[in-house]
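Q: What would this complex look like in 3D?
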Amino acid sequence: MEVARDLIGCVVRHAGSAGRIVEAEAYHEEEPACHAFVGLTARTKPLFGPAGFAYVYRSYGIHALLNAVTSEDGEGAAVLIRALEPLDGIELMRARRGVERLTDLCSGPGKLTQALDIGLSLNETSLLADGPIEFLPREAADAPVPRIVVSERIGITRAMELPWRFSDANAVRFVSSPRPPELRARAA
DNA sequence: TAAACGATGCCCT
DNA sequence: GGGCATCGTTTAC
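A: Here is my prediction, written as structure tokens for the whole assembly.
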């Protein structure tokens, strides 16, 4: 989950569009909200490593969700990318999403995959420069140091008490709903 | 082989 | 702010 914190501020680039990560959640096999909790299956195989690859799966039969695998020593672990601040290829994102508002383009895990045209075919591909999806470290992306807010994860029914959701308090506009309690009521 | 269950987003109030 | 569509994966019979 240190990786989830470090991923805030990184830039994700794919298919002519890019965004800065403003929200991410950590998942680990020892905790029941994680897909890897059930063990090694055809679906969860990518979660068990190696790290640095994508785990893309279908949620609710409709959406593709993007994870960065962070597995070490064969354990199942990953970070769910939940929201981006749009940077490049914004018109491309608008066309793919069918919406205009900047804050509606990538403010959710299913939204950002649609905006960046990330589909299930990219499962198990590399997230380094040699793969189709490219993750740029915060320093390389010359992004400002984010003010990170820690809260409970959302959209799950088990292990909800773990504080493994990380959001950038300086980019609240682009964080998905419901926002962390600490960030409600403010609009910057 | 069948049925239940989501790491969601959209549309309506 | 709340209800609902939708289908692959998992688990049970």
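A: To summarize the key features: The CA atoms of residues 5 and 141 of chain A lie 16 Å apart. Helices of chain A lie at 2-7, 90-97, 109-115.
Q: Very helpful, thank you.
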